[in-house]
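Thread title: Can someone regenerate the structure for this chain?

I was given the following input by a collaborator and told the matching structure tokens would be attached. They weren't. Posting the sequence so someone can regenerate them.
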Amino acid sequence: MGFSNENTAAHHLYTILCQIRDSGENAYSAGWVHVLDAEWGSPEFARRHTEVVTLLQLTLRSLNALPERSRVRSERYVNGWWVAVMQPVANWSDINRPAQGVISQEDLDQLESTAELISGNLMGSDAAPRSGNLDEIAKQCKEWLDLLQSMSESEISGPVRDELISQIKHLIWLIEHVDLFGGARVAGEATSVIGSIAQISTTLANVEPETASRWKKGFLTLLAACVFFNQAVPIVQESISTGSDMVKEITAVVERVQGNE
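Best answer:
Regenerated them for you:
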């Protein structure tokens, strides 16, 4: 299978369900509260549980990229994982349902095995990023917040700016909680942020030269930081120092679109 890490969505879903199962709490809800460290019924609990649902979604998406035999074998256990996360028929607060019963040991073991398959087959992608160093991405996110908050309505539409700010703040939150939700979740959201920035780049108008320069530099630097996080270090160090063709192509496309407007 090759090299494996524990940075996939499936690994972190496995860890969360293990911790709930082993929490010793007398109800599912208490087990979830214990692991997510958020008050039951609060917006923060809903936010964190939603991220666990996203971990399940990413796990299922990654299954489609596995070799057929591995995918088919893992798919037999998908319903057990979904039930563990959603509990569609159980009363979460029922004290006759201790947290230990949140998932069967068989379903849990298969989830861990699937995590290893995803890691081994998809290493270096968003599904299984190689690196765990997120400091540079976090730094670039904060610089993007400063840039966006300094831009006027004449340079960028208010709703577009506010949505991007919200998206970047969520990425920062995921980085702050990477121990709980994992690197794959960060990588996926970072890719989404980069896509949003690239798309918004085509709509900017009346941008001051200094702002335009900061925007372009910020885009390239964030992209480089994200590529560094996802790929092998020696390859990325070379591409950052020389200027990767992908970065140049993306920038050229954006500039061509702006030039045609």
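The chain has two domains: 9-122, 135-260.
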